[in-house]
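Changelog excerpt

This revision adds worked examples to the README so contributors can see how folded entries look when concatenated. The first example is reproduced verbatim below.
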Amino acid sequence: MQSAEKHTLFEDAQGFVFGTAMCAFAIVMLRDLGLITGQTAGLSLLISYLLSAPFGWVFFAVNLPFYWFGYRRMGLKFVLKTFACVALLSVFSELFPHLVSFERLDPAFGAIMLGFFQGAGLMAIFRHGGSLGGIGILALYLQDATKFRAGYVQLAFDAALFAVAAFLLPLDQVAWSLLGAVVLNLVIAINHRRDRYIAM
């Protein structure tokens, strides 16, 4: 198989702007509906609800401890790309609510669409060698250190996060949040295939 051509700096930049913008729009929908999602973004949303704090600042702060794991596991280039993506999402998620609002957003429709938006955004970020940091980085680090599968670490974290959310949020909001998380994970599972898509 012919090796894939590397992305240019400009291509990486547009991929990160596109990906973080899609994820930030999903965050606007999540906050409008009072929902959460999985991983670090979900934890940051829950904290922002409890403290009435801006999501962007919380998300940026929550990710800070994970860069060391990213550096140890995947090197400086990955950490710099991830830092850029986290910073962009933090800024966009605070900017976008001033540019768009929803007069009516059905919870079922919103949960499905935000799952699609997040999935598309993350796919773009992954294809250009970045991430949104957090639990995914820690999971890969623990997999190397303990041989415990990264997917199980992420699943356990999300299960704990949604269990806590069930005590803090109305159960219907938790149910719609789960729908959005399922849609997101299906998009990633079906489309993020290194055997089919090898460009990095």
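The second example, added in the same revision:
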Amino acid sequence: MGFDVQGKVALVTGANRGIGKVILETLLAEGASKVYAAVRDTSSVEGLVKEHGEKVVPLEIDLSKPATIAAAAKQAEDVELVVNNAGVLKTADPLDPAAFDALDFEMKVNVHGLMHMAQAFAPVLKTNGGGALVQLNSVASIKNFADFATYSASKAASYSITQALRDKLADQNTQVLSVHPGPIGTDMADSAGLTEMAEPPSVVADGIVAALADGRFHLFPDTMAKQVGEAYSGFAENIVEANLMEG
């Protein structure tokens, strides 16, 4: 199964900057007919609307507010591709007293937000032929980085949910892609002190288009991610992507 973005209607959360903005622009460049720019503040995508016209539709989604997700699903009834890019990162290690609040916040956005997106948009995708769901996870979903321990934990949970969505949505012909970038040149990377090793967001956006076309479940787009992906590939193929329930 593969998914071609040409002529498709897409939705990208966190589309106003960083990876999300580049994903939106790449989808349009690859022939998507329309992209819903799903953001907390719709005024933040006015520049994209001016540049691309009716092909970009502002849409309010705050992953920490389920009501906005439900309302968006009712408005964007023609969506065939959902890219859940938005996420949050707090710098907190397990011994930091602030780690509990950091983890609660990251779980609410990075995990609960994904689940709310899936529950709201899976029926939409099914109605429109199945389509595809892309979840931006991280190399931190596989390897915990102590200075970002709570973020890593939330992304590990997000990755686990993404695996379940792959299995559950297969029956409705919805392709699921789990994306695991390393440091990418965004405000989030800057705040985490990873600017020097960061690669451009285009490696993620281009990788998503290619991975969807190939029908892959995992994408490790950049240099660090590829190193992780190569080491992880055997486990991914034989355990994560295998149907262990068949014996």
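Reviewer comment on example two: The two ends are 24 Å apart (CA to CA). Residues 99-127 form the longest helix (29 residues).
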